[in-house]
Design a protein that fits this description.
The complex is a heterotrimer of chains A (about 550), B (about 120) and C (about 200). By secondary structure, chain A is mainly alpha-helical. In chain A, about 65% of the residues lie in helices and about 0% in strands. Chain B has 2 domains: about 55 residues; about 45 residues, no CATH class. Chain B is mainly alpha-helical and about 120 residues long. In chain B, about 65% of the residues lie in helices and about 5% in strands. The chains are: A mainly alpha (about 550), B mainly alpha (about 120), C mainly alpha (about 200).
């Protein structure tokens, strides 16, 4: 039984772009904000890598990178990439755009809460960026913000920046709590008639799961952040051992959130890749239910692995044993999901369009990230590797697939639906190869320098004779140059993205011949999405069925 | 299965709320009186045992949690369990002040100093 | 602020789970609040158990004020659930009146707390006075903020309910209020009674 959508009056420009409650507009707001923050985050990485590759030289656009500046650069790079790029694009932008469309609804269940969440998010962006301009500059206590460094301005030298950072993070959390709850309720309740739980596209499930994991893990950190703010501004001693507090408490609270957080960003990325693989292999996603249960299991397990970030922090060694075991265990469900991807590809009719290239790259690169994590999850080897560049290389081999590779996959895949135009395939492929090859050349040397003893968060190794061997210096320089190359290739993407907005080939409703509901509406979808709200008759991945004229069977087609 | 209209009626039947309230207030009085006892077990039971009972009464009778779909109380209990996990993982470091091969001298000193200042009040 | 049926999307009116959307989101909000308060409470409990010398500081909290406040919140919860009963009977104006009474209860709670804290501060016990007091003010303060927020939302819902509009929200705001009440039910023994 389908219903006619509500008819909406045509709004003015302010209403349309700034005050809209339309989930697609809010998605764009998050997407463009996230992309702008990515540019800033990339620029910050340029800053500190130039210092590491060409120490104590003037860096164009930044100046001389002093130790204080270096600390601020690395702190803000990490914070921005996780909280203001990965989360807003993967969860808020894609979630907002896709969820109502993919479940056959006209909007989110609570559009005004949706708008509010972006507004709070925007305030967090402003607060964070303002911190660059205050006395002392942006926070320089690392994105993990351990006290007493982060609690005392005398130590971190950025007291105002430290509090602004905390407030920005807190606001970002509130925005994502609001948004995430909205997504969850919408996905649970607002599904089209006939769309059962297991007919929902995988990416929707993953975004909802991510929202739930975020919600459950962020609570204690919110409490802890209030306590840290009080330590910074109100002379309390929550984390000060001289006042009866404990710095280790912050570490526990932070990582109790911090570890589930990586799955909060991983799951949506894996969901995006799942959608892409099915469409471009023309094959049903292998093991939908298995993937779903495995994702749930990963989510639950992610709550009992957190102290592997604290193996050398002075935690009780018996806890280290327990957390080692759980950490190694969690690699199993993730590996399972990668196997499901490979099984999806096997026997498929693979088209190597740009989105598929990104999807395949995700699998290959994330595999390296996952495997190198094993060395860090085992507490014995972690004693050596903790706080070295090995860790940095490991988490970039997980985070870059999540926040960059999967994001580019999602953007190139859904761009036609979002903007009504096709991206240029040639430019897309050049951008892909330039980015992925350069990415590997940045981080493989860092595995090596890490094992050779390069510590994290050191602005210059000139005082460490062991680290100034020519081979290591050469590796660092190579890594920096590769970053410059990778940044340069992003220009191609920017040109492609913005040029195609006006001049790309006009996109049909379903250029990729996909089965899910968002491809049944015009590109871009009108306000209200569906002129006639759909009814769903089958699962989301009915590809390649024998005996049918087309190799795909849309979810809402009656026969 | 979807319904296109808002459900404004709960499927609950409404018990005598004033009676429940009276029980809650009585329990409150019990907890205040019981907490003044010098027997530690009685004090703890009066304070926390009563709190648990009161919370249950509010959840069951005011929030109608037992009439709700089953996964709702399960969800809330799971959230609570995560907090127990948090405590289990953090307590060995934060609650204890010494362990295998380590001790938190600052905390130990704070406890000692504090106990010296008020020995009569220690439980 | 018009909160009436103006432009509710179809998404808001569907209910694939069988639970009305407004109530569903309320349960999720409560779940997220459990981990916020639960986290802070877990931290406090660990510290309290590890620092028996805090008992001296804890003895200075005004148990009578705490007990009266517990009574106030319990009574306001009664008003909230009676408001729900009225809304179920489609008696919007009665529900509104009861919600406003609930809100008044919140106001009384905050007022008593105001006097209590003024007295404590005069005695020299402030946020930075050391372990116990830092946690005391943070816990009770966070709770108080939630009471304030609840009061405001309740008054907004009451405004609509008085016109017999959006009656389903009466139950939802009540659920939130009961949760805030339950948090206090545990804060009271933890901060006031336990010695």
């Amino acid at each position: 039984m389908s219903t006619h959508a509500v008819h909406h009056a045509e709004p003015g420009a302010f209403q349309k772009y700034f005050w809209s409650t339309d989930h697609k507009v809010i998605a764009m707001q998050y997407l463009f904000t996230g992309m702008a923050m990515a540019a800033i985050g990339g620029f910050l990485a340029y800053g500190f890598r130039m210092q590491l590759g060409f120490p104590n030289q003037h860096v164009p656009g930044i100046g001389l990178v002093t130790p204080g500046k270096y600390n601020a650069l690395v702190t803000m790079h990490g914070s921005i990439m996780i909280f203001w790029v990965a989360m807003p694009i993967l969860i808020a932008a894609f979630g907002n755009f896709l969820i109502p469309l993919m479940i056959g609804a006209d909007d989110m269940a609570f559009p005004r809460i949706n708008r509010l969440s972006y507004q709070i998010f925007l305030i967090s962006v402003i607060v964070l960026l303002a911190s660059f301009f205050v006395k002392g500059g942006a926070f320089g206590g690392a994105w993990t913000s351990y006290p007493p460094l982060s609690a005392k301005g005398a130590y971190n030298l950025t007291p105002i920046g430290a509090s602004l950072w905390l407030i920005a993070v807190a606001l970002e959390f509130v925005a994502f709590l609001l948004g995430g709850i909205n997504f969850t309720v919408t996905a649970m309740n607002s599904r089209a008639p006939g769309m059962k739980m297991f007919d929902v596209p995988m990416v929707v499930w993953m975004i909802v799961l991510a929202s739930i994991i975020f919600m459950a893990s962020a609570g204690p950190l919110i409490a802890g952040a209030v306590m840290l703010l009080f330590d910074q501004t109100m002379a309390t001693g929550f984390y000060d051992p001289n006042r009866g507090g404990d710095p280790l408490l912050w570490e526990h609270l932070f990582w109790f959130f911090g570890h589930p957080e990586v799955y909060v960003v991983l799951l949506p990325a894996m969901g995006i890749v799942a959608e892409i693989l099915a469409v471009f292999a023309r094959k049903k996603l292998f093991g939908y239910k298995t993937m779903l249960y495995t994702a749930w299991a990963t989510g639950v397990l992610s709550f009992v692995v957190w102290a592997h970030h604290q193996f050398v922090a002075g935690i009780d060694p018996r806890m280290a044993n327990i957390f080692s075991v759980t950490t190694l265990l969690i690699s199993i469900p993730i590996a399972e999901m990668v196997f499901l991807y490979i099984a999806t590809l096997y026997g498929g009719s693979i088209r190597l369009d740009t989105p598929m290239l990104w999807g395949l790259a995700f699998i290959a690169e994330f595999l390296i990230g996952g495997v190198t994590g094993i060395f860090l999850g085992a507490s014995g080897t972690d004693i050596y590797l903790h706080d070295t560049y090995f860790v940095i290389a490991h988490f970039h081999y997980t985070f870059v697939p999540i926040a960059i590779i999967a994001v580019f996959g999602g953007i190139t895949f859904w761009y036609p639906k979002m903007f009504g135009r096709m991206l240029n395939e040639t430019l897309g492929k050049i951008h892909f190869w330039g980015t992925v090859i350069a990415f590997n050349v940045i981080f493989i040397p860092l595995f090596m320098t890490g094992v050779a003893g390069d510590q994290r968060r050191i602005y210059s190794y000139s005082q460490f004779q062991e680290q100034m061997k020519p081979a290591l210096v050469h590796l660092r320089t190579t890594s920096t140059i590769a970053l410059l190359v990778m940044l340069a290739f992003q220009i191609i993407f920017i040109v492609n993205f913005f040029w195609s907005l006006r001049n790309g080939e006009k996109a049909a409703a379903n250029p990729w011949r996909s089965t899910t509901l968002e491809w049944t509406v015009p590109s871009p979808p009108p306000h209200g999405n569906f002129s006639e709200l759909p009814t769903v008759y089958r699962g989301p991945y009915e590809y390649g069925l024998p005996g049918r004229a087309d190799d795909y069977w849309p979810q809402d087609a009656q026969n | 299965m979807s319904s296109e209209h808002m459900t404004t009626e709960s499927r609950v039947h409404h018990p005598d709320y004033v009676k429940i309230w009276a029980i809650l207030v009585a329990l409150l009085i019990v907890s205040v009186i019981g907490s003044m006892s010098s027997i530690r077990a009685v004090m703890l039971l009066a304070a926390f045992g009563v709190a648990i009972v009161k919370a249950y009464l509010v959840a069951k009778n005011f929030m109608h949690i037992n009439v709700e779909k089953r996964w709702v109380p399960y969800l809330l209990i799971v959230c609570l369990m995560f907090m127990v996990v948090l405590m289990a993982g953090v307590a060995p470091d934060v609650m204890h002040h010494s362990g295998l091969h380590w001790e938190n001298t600052a905390a130990k000193q704070a406890v000692e100093k504090g106990m010296q200042n008020a020995p009569a009040k220690h439980e | 602020m018009s909160t009436a049926t103006a432009a509710k999307p179809i998404a808001n009116t569907r209910s694939a789970t069988g639970i009305p959307t407004a109530k569903l989101i309320t349960w999720w909000v409560i779940a997220s609040e459990i981990v916020i308060f639960g986290g802070l409470l877990a931290i406090y409990i660990m510290h309290r158990l590890g620092h028996p010398e805090w008992a001296e500081a804890a003895s200075h909290t005004n148990t009578m004020a705490g007990a009266v406040n517990t009574f106030v919140l319990l009574t306001s919860s009664l008003c909230a659930v009676l408001a729900h009963k009225a809304a179920d009977a489609h008696d919007g104006p009665k529900a509104a009146k009861l919600l406003r009474l609930t809100s008044l209860g919140g106001l009384i709670f905050l007022t008593i707390k105001g006097f209590e804290w003024t007295h404590d501060i005069h005695e020299g016990f402030v946020l930075s006075s050391g372990g116990f007091w830092s946690y005391y003010y943070t816990l009770a303060g966070l709770h108080g903020l939630h009471v304030l927020a609840g009061m405001i939302i309740m008054l907004i819902v009451a405004a609509d309910a008085a016109k017999n509009q959006e009656l389903q929200r009466v139950e939802c705001v009540g659920l939130y209020w009961h949760f805030v009440d339950i948090v206090w039910i545990f804060l009271f023994p933890l901060l006031y009674i336990a010695r």
